[in-house]
## 1
Amino acid sequence: MDLKYNAEEEQFRATVRAFFDGELPTDIRTKLQLGRRISKDDMVRWQKILFRKGWGAVNWPERFGGTGWDIVQQHIFEEERADACAPPQNPFSLKMLAPVMQTFGTAAQQEYFLPRILSGEDWWCQGYSEPGSGSDLASLRTSAVRQGDHYIVNGQKTWNTLGQYADWIFCLVRTSTEGRSQQGISFLLIDMKSAGITVRPIIMLDGEHEINDIFFDNVKVPVQNLIGEENKGWTYAKFLLTHERSGNAGIGACKRALKKLKEIAAEQMSNGRPLIEDSRFRDRIAQVEMELMALEITNLRVLSATAAEQRALGPEVSVLKIKGSEIIQQLAELKMHALGHDALPYVREALEMGWAGDPLLSAHYHSYAPPISGQYFNQRKTTIYAGSTEIQKNIISQMILGL
Amino acid sequence: MEFNYSEEQLALQDTLQRFISRDYDFDKRRKLSASTLGYSAEAWSQYAELGLLSLPFPEDCGGLGGNAVDVMLVMELFGQGLLLEPYLSTVVTCGGLIRDAASAVMKDKLLPQIIGGTLKIALAAYEAAGRYDLSYVGCKAQESGASWRISGRKTVVLDGASADYFLVSARSSGEISDRDGISLFLVPRDAQGLTVAAYPTQSGARAADLLLENVTLSADALIGAASRALPVIERAVDRAIAALCAEAVGIINALNQATLSYLKSRKQFGVAIGTFQALKHKMADMLIAAEQSRSMAIIAAVHADSQDAADRHRHVAAAKAYIGQAGRLVGQHAVQMHGGMGVVDELIVSHYFKRLTMIDLSLGDADYHLASFSDTLRPAS
């Protein structure tokens, strides 16, 4: 048992850090540091830089153009990424769709789509939830009817993240109503430029446009865009969800948020003294820090054991998802509380870079303040998406505990 | 003991309730919040007609002679309807302060205008580096002859965007955190040397920051005794806190109602999601939180008018801390159980959640008031 990184891993960290120091564009870094809005262009630009370095996909095997890094290397990369304030890469293509495609896709699909994901050419989004199918995902009703060489897709997907940017969407569709609802689901890749697709923005509680409803009206999809076998989509969907949830722990992002929280608590004043000197507030930070210390090791233990045993990720990722989402929420909440009355202003213009600021307001309203309350509101989604905390606890109690 | 409301109180509640259902639905509220003023001028006139603006003032000033329990009933409905008008600052906080501490001349000048709906006042008592501490006053007041000169900054003045006057705390003597040496001034919005930076808040209302640069005021702008204003300010803020507690209770109950109805109507796995035990128990916790919060709001209201400052503040702090925590639980559970529907702008649920969150962060959050309450448990030395 040794919790220290070895010399090789430390060397790896230094290489990664040097790369971020040298290659991450300053404008993008500043936006992330200050919590300002980032654009699709920022994310694509960053993906292309990573791609040129050969680091386009840190979780893929080398044969598909990935780095082939082990779990610890991926962890170090993610930690350094968050600390450097580099944008996260598109998780829908790299961490969710790609493992499915690499495991169940055809050679033609792999050859066409994977390089385009890697190079940042295609933006992917996810079509899972429907208005009537959230936690009960398998009840989904968007239909795909085979007609010659095509499927004709009709229905509605919701809670679609950043689909307004997307070139492609991967969708769970119903190809059969026979038997249990899980049995008639297929996994389909759909070109967002297809006729009959409408994207309708949903504004979230923080006032931002991050998610959408997507409507399919007689959309024609070539049959070669089916992943694996027809009516076997539920198996691939669950495989994907396990990968999605394993990424939800978000240790790097949590560590970065913790560091930021401490900076804010040192900056904000309470009765003329830095807030961090208030033991009641400091205890709250300490409490979250302990949770995060534990989760970092739990996360590495789970992922290393899976890798060592060469098995697929299992229901234990639900532990990571629950804890990771709770920790990021608690950190967002504490950052908001640290601001005191400064958490109240809602200055929308300040979420864009280049806001000159109101000289009067900025006398006390720190540059980090504008996005913080919105982030707390927004982060409530993390215990809801990718299977709510309640669903994760059902998985733990049924699949691990046998209750 | 008596836990029932009087007939007059029930009638007042009923009138305001009918006004909200008729004239202040969620869509209307959304439009008002996005408007330049940020609230409804017509509603303000209506409140004047309904007697809400005269509620806490003595009858000899043209008021209804109501107490903090009457205000509690009103504020609970302000919560339920997410009303945006500056009632808390103008009537409860500043109106109450003027009633308690201003000279007869000043009262005669200001109260009839407040009651008539033509005057709005906001309390500017907090400064950035003081966080929630009302005694942290760096803003300076210098007396010279028959006038005062005020210089300094005040931050996040609630309802400050539309106020005609500000009640500004400023230090006329002593060090920055001294309890003594704080004076209170009535500053007109158009005073020379005053800059007002207004902005929207996270819960859809308006606030402002003030910069005072050698603002010169005549002697009658001083409210109460020079250098002795802190107890007066604390009393007004305690009354405001009691009112905020009531507003929170209105929101908590509205969120519980919305969540309960969602649990009954939303179906997953072929059944209403309210049949799942995990959600039932969360909902039961929310009901308990609502009942306990109501009791705390009543405790705060009953003590808010008390002359015994320590006793008053102890009860009000306990209520604010408790309701801050309960509001957090109810708000977060309500959003969680609404799933995706809980985090969208389109439903009122997220607006209730945001308001509840901002109530906790206003006038001292749960931790601040917990510290204040727990300090009273120290053995006397």
Note: The two ends of chain B are 34 Å apart (CA to CA).
## 2
Amino acid sequence: MKSVSLLLALGLGAAVIVGASCGGNPPPQPVTPNADSAAAAERAKQDSIAAAQAEAERQAAAERERIARQREADSIAALSRASEEVRTTLAAMIHFDLDKSSLRGDDLGTLDQKVAILQANPGLKIRIGGHCDERGSDEYNLALGNRRAQSAKQYLVSHGIDASRIETQSWGEERPLVNGHDESAWSQNRRDEFEVTSGGDNLHRP
Amino acid sequence: MRNEIRFAALLLAVGPFGRPAAAQDTTSIDRGVRIGIIYRPGVRPGLVMLPRTGGGMGLDSVRIMVARDIDYSDRFEVITLPGGDSIRLAGSPTAKRGTGRRPGGTAATGGAQSGSTLNYPLYQALGADFALDITAAGDTTVATLHDIAAAGIRRTVRARLPRPGDPDFRMAVHRLADQALQAALGTPGIAATRVLFVKDGKVYQIDQDGADQKLVSSTNRQAMSPAWGSDGRQFAYMEFQAGKGWLYLQEMATGQRTAVSTTGTALDFTPAFSPDGQTLAFSRATEEGTDLYTINIKNNCCLRRLTVGRFSDNLSPTFSPDGQRIAFVSTRPGLPQIYVMAADGTDQQLFAPFDYGVTGSSNAPEWSPDGQSVAFHRDVAGTLQVFVLDVRTRTVRQLTSVGRNEDPTWAPDSRHLAFVSDRSGYRQLWIIDLDTGRIRPLLQQSGARLPAWSPRLSEASSSTP
């Protein structure tokens, strides 16, 4: 809805600009009568009117073209802004309790948003990366990270997303998001990351 | 202790002397608390390194290295003599049991036979059971082991060592030390061994005495979990590549590496060689979870799945030295614990006992080369500690308690373990001797992890091309 009203506003604004530029065109100046020939004068008048009109039309056309281009650019910007927002929502991480791979209740909303985005963008494919904090065993964390990625994937699949659209991988504790040795760092590092693998150029809002 | 006291008394009689050469490394060692280790001081045989006589190329560094190796074996009470030759010279004329041997002798004119006259009673008074003499005869280095009580030479070992500075020099000296130790005790030593480890995502090797650290990784991709082949000629490790975990085999001598044939489709990790070198066991993480597989690496065939976890993960395999069984980690009880099965995947059962709901996660098992123990680490009150499982009685004991201690790996003598500890403030590699409880740092650099101790390295397996 937001995007539609934004587009409407942009369109209206463009129309106002077009109108203003047409009305703002100076009217053709009256030509001084030629004593020699009223006909010539009339002809000259007609010529100059025609010239002025042609000039006005040419300017109006140029302006229309400029507006059209601007509008197109604006709508592309708007679209890519929307796409960017969708991408940000899609990339929102979810987090886990220590040594756990079960989804937390406060993350289900985040996952539901991803379900909606995947449904609104049938060409979109993603990869989920499972990560752990440094406290567990280095090698076991590879298995735990795998479980964490699978947990999120299973949730998305159980909400109707085709499994073939979701890749998973585990990084264990090898890619910490935050470097630190306290609970604040650890809790941020126990996470799933979501990234687009294909079909992410023009994402639609759900 | 008794040896040091006697020695001190004797030194007072002899006169001023230099700083003992090997004492430096031992003074700051005992920071670790020992739990479950029975320390019996004084029961180890005393060994004295004889002062040098005569010169020889690199003889001093050979002597220092051999003395350190003997010390690090933790099998002797090492008695260090002062730098001068006063004791030896003072002893020679009064030698009573050295009859029949020519007195004196220099390195230039001969080795053991000519230089063997020792004042055995004097060394016996020092508490020595053995005396080790390192001399040079031409281009040959001679290690002579004297049996003090028998008042004679136990064995003479001759070696043509590479020049100091040669890449093979240190390993050759370590082998000499191992031969001397074997001559004394009948048990092979661990001087000619190395430890692989991971630091900053790369695999390195380091000699067991902390020397010759060297990069062995050949790519910039992140590596984990190095594991030695049982002949010491190759190792396996895991590398992150394109979002998967790839297993590679790499030749130690040439650095040549090959990907394991079935790898690259999933996250493969924690490789482990079977003792006969035919089979590689590993963990594979897929959408079904993590399970154990084996593959024949000689014929690149016969991928075999050993566990079917479904709702649990199975990982970190380690073969028994007879190749019949595999210990591993399983999350089937909820948290990871140590399990065991036959090498074909049958007869899976709990290995290291735990109290359900009380005992923390247990991980990183490694079967000892003598087959009697499995070392692993376990979460105790939020940090990790090294444990050892007795295979026969299936009881566990905790070895460490200071700081975080993890990823133990056995030396070939099955009595030393290298492990990662942050007891000094940052994570580095340490070595503990299970018999004496002595702990020494192997590598004083932050960030080292996942150590793997080599088997004994023969000349062929450790030579540098």
Note: Chain B has a mean pLDDT of 84.
## 3
Amino acid sequence: MSTLYKVMARTGFRGFKQGEEFEADLTPDEERRAKQRGSIRVVRRDPDKHKEEEKDG
Amino acid sequence: MAKRIALKDSVEVDGQDLSNDCRSVDFTSEHAREDVSGFNATGASEYLAGITTQSVTCEFFGDYSAAGTHQVLYPIHRDREIVTFAWRHDQTTAVSATNPELRGNVQVLTYSPGATRGETEAFSVEFTAADETGLQFYDTAAA
């Protein structure tokens, strides 16, 4: 199951327009950079990915 | 053969569409020329293709808004990150054999914005291929 993201940037993200939601398996680095610059926000976290993050951190 | 005027190009860095902040793209792929010439009757030289060096140089407008040029490019350079790059001729149509997309993982080794009084701020950024796959043209969209 992939993580659900919402596009926040006016210029879109990965071909999706501002306001659209998309499911993807972004790497932790991709997600961090995109969130930091305000391109996306997480709508629904992939439960498996979240478990991995908890284990790592 | 259809010639074109560059107007609708798509430039995407780290998933972020920077097309509207970009006004030129120059891709370079070069194999080093290694001289392997020996003595021979004609005196002609013989070469082999050596190491490959690839890069894309784009000219961007200075844009400091959210998800603009600076917010996308500077952290990539500062943190020595490797990110995706994609360029195709027509952003209004999908990737295909007649609208191929140059894609690859790149780094921004030099970041040098600048400004001149009274002039539009624009600066060049060189994206250097960062892994063994290099930068290649594809006929189909990325997975």
Note: Chain B has a mean pLDDT of 96.
## 4
Amino acid sequence: MTLPAVVIGIGNRYRRDDGSALKVLEILTDRVPQSARLVESDGEPARIIDSWNGTDVAVIVETVRRGDAPGTIATIDWDTQDSPAGSPHHDHGSHSLGILEAIALGRALERMPRHLRLVGIEPLDLGWGEGLSDPVAGSIDAAAQLVLDSLRSLVNG
Amino acid sequence: MTHANGASRTLSVASLARVEGEGAMHVVVRDGVVSDVELRIFEPPRFFEAFLRGRAATEVPDIAARICGICPVAYQMSACQAIESACGITVDEQVLALRRLLYCGEWIESHALHIYLLHAPDFLGYESSVALAQDHRAIVERGLQLKKVGNDILTVLGGRAIHPVNVRVGGFYKAPSFAELDALTERLRWAVDAAIETVQWVAGFDFPDLQLEGDLVAMQHEHEYPITEGRIASTSGLDITVDHFPEHFSEEHVAHSTALHGRMRGGGTYTVGPLARYNLNYDRLPALVKELAVAAGVARECRNPFQSIIVRALEVVFACDEALRIIAAYTPPAAPSAEMPARGGTGHGCTEAPRGLLYHRYTVDDAGVIRDAVIVPPTSQNQPSIEHGLREFVQHRLHLDDAELTRQCEQAIRNYDPCISCATHFLDLTVDRG
């Protein structure tokens, strides 16, 4: 059954703060409204498109590096602009597959949700291992609340 | 990317596009001769092997699934097999059939992703799958739907499409009913037709001339096209059981990559993956796939890496057909899983990941704790072969300008579908604060 909203958490729990989105999903498990479902993602674009397929609202939680203080939370609404607020660097790692490609491909195939919001969390440590750094761990509750607020405003918006 | 003078130049691609993970390429030309080719892979430096030591053997399938988002089943299956071998566990025939079915799902998903989103744009002159989708929406949709059929198998059997949670040492936590599997039948029948159309589509591409040299290594099975069971064989006549892998293959550190490089002991580079499987196991393919292979012009033998896209498409037909066969013959096992005895030992596991041979070895103590772990993924085995092939490839294309030569090199690397797993998934954004 397709629900009107989906929350997609993208990350890798074995790369420290890259697991922040998955932690947000964990604490949202019993808190999201019944009209929304939670999806864990490794960032593969076709699966992301499948995850939001047929939904009205998609909120994506992901680690985002913008040069802000670690733990800073940023939101970007993709449905209100043609391109994201900035562009991906190609000298810092794996961006050949990911959310930007999912959005571009979703647009080309006309398979986009009506509202698409990114909730990004600035990382401190992307090295190998489990567990979040203190500033990122300290932002998880706020990020989860922001997701809930987003669902509330966007689903009815 | 920089130009040097005359016949000397250096090509560098800091971040390879359309490969899964993080990688870079560095080619040096001196006086008209390719002097150095390095594929720089930023693979996890044995993180998972160290991480698994001290963990309960029963935890390994869940942890191993996280090594790669694209082929979690492969890591789970090789891991389970190795631990079951170490602990003397015999797995029920129907459970083995379910594992093969789960693996078919992963082959379908992984190959469809590579064919449609990563590789096909190269042959059709598009810079990305997005550009391809803008001009050929129906074709890309077919690829995504085909991929989703693989996803659906993983969801039914694995509990979810990424990092399956239903797999355990000895089998599954829960075996599906016949009705649950049969619900996949209609979609799989569509998938067989879509996969056949895929073969016919990619067979019409133009392929540069290139012959893969050296040994091809894959599993071989008496009756089946190999996925989860068999011996390890090579085109030069190697034929060993899985537990003899360490005696014949080694891994070496190289300065330019955190991934180890695979070598045959006393020999040279070798290649694993679809071409190796196909060349060593053509006779095990069903008649339908052989007929398509003949029509596509790659019957029995194919050593052109660019034509690996045809072989992947043939393997998708096979995997869809095989999934239908397994479902039709399925009766639920008496128990979804064999019990794990309190017995330790060292065990070896080997299966055919979409990208090729994936070997695991574990030493488990009598308390069921992992004491040692060795994981040899396909991409590290192929890395020397990719570099060797690139050296020849570039040497014959030095007349091209840097941009075109770089593009063709990237395409040549993508022939191998390198999976440089475990990359982070963060997004770099530059912000114009005006």
Note: Residues 140-155 of chain A form the longest helix (16 residues).
